[in-house]
Specification:
By secondary structure, the chain is an alpha/beta fold. The protein folds into 2 domains: 3-20 and 250-290; 34-249, Pyruvate Kinase, Chain: A, domain 1 (3-Layer(aba) Sandwich), CATH 3.40.1380.10. Helices cover 60% and strands 10% of the residues. It has helices at residues 3-67, 99-111, 123-132, 150-161, 215-290; strands at 84-89, 117-121, 138-141, 166-172, 182-188. A 5-stranded mixed beta sheet has the order 3-2-1-4-5, sandwiched between helices. Helix 3 links the parallel strand 2 (117-121) and strand 3. The two termini are 34 Å apart.
């Protein structure tokens, strides 16, 4: 490598370093903007989702008893199609580290041969699914990576998946800045009646809930007001995990660029010395020729 080529490499490395630094700052800004809200809401929605699932199971048992002529008479009208859907949340662009691919791998593992309908969000996921040539069709939605576009995208996707009885969302989960594992979140779930269980003793245990005014009204409230919030939370969890993973990925890239830049800067004076030494040797050789 010539000294000119080395100088060009140093300039290019500086440019890459500036770009990664800017991207890292943007990711940090976006992460800070949603981090506190997402984490504060996480435990609340997880607990509320557990109550919703238990209420669904209890309601399923009351329907079975009503069919046998018991005093329970649920009147809730089913509004879903009775089918299952798996929703994969990916991204439109790269530089998100391994979290997006980890989520994709978990999704494919769980649903390569399942009967669930598939929904893919983000161009990366669409391209990977198409590359695998899965025999199953899928519904695609585009979701911009910036947090300012999330709300509009969530509404569009939820309007489609809300027709399903069983909704599973695959997304990243932010645990800390160095750990963003893949996760599958149940937003809603079909419930099956078990003959051996009764509403009073599901699984052999007493269900510690009192439904007011009725279990039907409680479920209607969940479905009209809270299921969307569960879905919304999972999308924001995905965004937070991606921004955290991007920060780590860019930090690693910045460190690698810094090492390469330091090595190039160190090589520059050595190359200059070698060039000077060569000139001196050429000069000495030319003097010897004239003797």
């Amino acid at each position: 490598m010539t000294n000119k080529e080395l100088n060009i490499q140093i300039v290019n490395l500086r440019a890459i370093q500036n770009i990664t630094d800017v991207y890292q700052q943007v990711a940090a800004m976006r992460m800070r903007k949603i981090k506190d809200t997402v984490i504060q809401n996480r435990k609340f929605y997880e607990s509320l989702s557990e109550v919703y699932m238990e209420t669904q199971r209890f309601y399923s048992k009351t329907k079975a008893l009503a069919a046998k002529g018991a005093r329970y008479s649920p009147m809730l009208v089913e509004k879903t199609n009775g089918k299952s859907v798996a929703v994969l949340i990916t991204a439109n662009t790269g530089l998100y580290g391994s979290v997006v691919k980890d989520v994709f791998d978990l999704f494919v593992k769980d649903h390569k041969d399942s009967n669930s309908d598939l929904v893919v969000v983000g161009r990366l996921g669409r391209n990977w699914i198409q590359a695998l040539k899965l025999p199953k069709p899928f519904k695609y939605f585009d979701l911009q990576d910036g947090i300012e576009y999330i709300d509009a995208g969530i509404k569009l996707i939820f309007d489609y998946v809300s027709n399903y009885s069983d909704i599973m969302v695959y997304h990243g989960l932010f645990k800390n800045i160095t750990n963003q594992p893949a996760k599958a979140t149940k937003v809603t779930q079909k419930t099956a009646q078990t003959e051996a269980e009764s509403p009073e003793t599901p699984g052999g245990q007493t269900l510690s809930f009192i439904f007011e005014p009725t279990i039907e009204r409680v479920l209607i409230s969940f479905e009209e007001q809270l299921v969307y919030s569960f879905f919304d939370q999972s999308i924001y969890e995905s965004a937070l995990a991606k921004f955290g993973s991007r920060m780590m990925s860019l930090d690693t890239a910045t460190q690698n660029v810094s090492k390469a830049l330091a090595a190039a800067r160190l090589a520059s004076p050595k190359m200059k010395h070698r060039k000077q030494n060569k000139r001196q040797m050429d000069l000495i050789s030319s003097i010897d020729l004239w003797k």
